Amino acid sequence: MKKTRIEWTELTWNPVTGCDRISSGCDNCYALTMARRLKAMGTPQYQTDGDSRTSGPGFGVAIHPAALDAPYTWSGHRMVFVNSMSDLFHAKVPTSFVHQIIDVIRDTPQHTYQVLTKRAARARKLASSLDWPENLWFGVSVEDLDQAHRVDQLREIPAAVRFLSCEPLLGDLSPLSLEGIDWVIAGGESGMSARPMDISWARGIRDNCLAHQVPFFFKQWGGRSPKTEGRILDGLTWSEMPYPRVARA
């Protein structure tokens, strides 16, 4: 468990670390850069290297069974981002370990867990074998319309809350259907090689949310650092959150 500066959650929990680039949204992956630093510092969880073509030092996929005990020790109610340094539905994560993580989430209903994936196809494939807890919010990353298929796959997953992370926002998503979607996060890319986000793209996804009464969270404009340009859009700070719902059948 680690406190985080990610605005839409409180803690990060990483029973899995490491990943591979699979689409344009991964090009400047913050987690890859962080893993390289953590490997150099000798952090045990980041000593597995990934494929140099799609990953890098310290970012090979690794599971950490000892981390499964952590949520049972947390007091109060926590909002928890699961695997901020990986993707739970990466092909190298054993199905049995996915089930173990879901079991921990179910066993700790006092906390709310947010799982985000770019591998919606595998998530949909496994969905029928998972008993989806009511305290699990499930989302997909969608950076541009080329990845809209992830949203279609998300709609087939019976999570209590389905959400989109449109970050880094790399194109106009205003035509995207929000049917069956409960929450949308949007934000620009940050880092030394950050690609700029057009204001019309941010307005487009916001206006789509407003038209369909979907809560909208504007995380950041991006830039050299995540906080460089702030998070105000047209004079307002958009920090809407979804209401928990009963899990869908």
**So how many helices?**
5
Along the chain, the helix and strand elements come as EEEHEEHEHEHEEHEEE
Radius of gyration over all CA atoms, rounded: 17 Å
Tell me the major beta sheet: 8 strands, mixed
Give unreliable regions as ranges.
none
Helix content: 10-25%
Shape type: globular
Q: Quote the distance from N terminus to C terminus.
A: 31 Å
| Widest sheet: strand ordering | 1-2-5-6-7-8-9-10
Average pLDDT, to the nearest integer? Answer: 95
What structural category do the secondary elements indicate?
alpha/beta
Beta fraction of the residues?
Answer: 15-25%
Got a strand count?
12
Give a written overview of the molecule.
The chain has helices at 30-40, 95-107, 120-127, 148-154, 199-211, and strands at 2-3, 11-13, 16-17, 62-63, 79-82, 112-117, 136-141, 161-166, 183-187, 216-220, 232-233, 236-237. By secondary structure, the chain is of the alpha/beta class. β11 (232-233) and β12 form a beta hairpin. The longest helix is centred in the middle third of the chain and has 13 residues, at 95-107. The radius of gyration is 17 Å and the shape is globular.
Can you give keywords for this protein?
18% strand, eight-stranded mixed β-sheet, 249 residues, alpha/beta, single chain
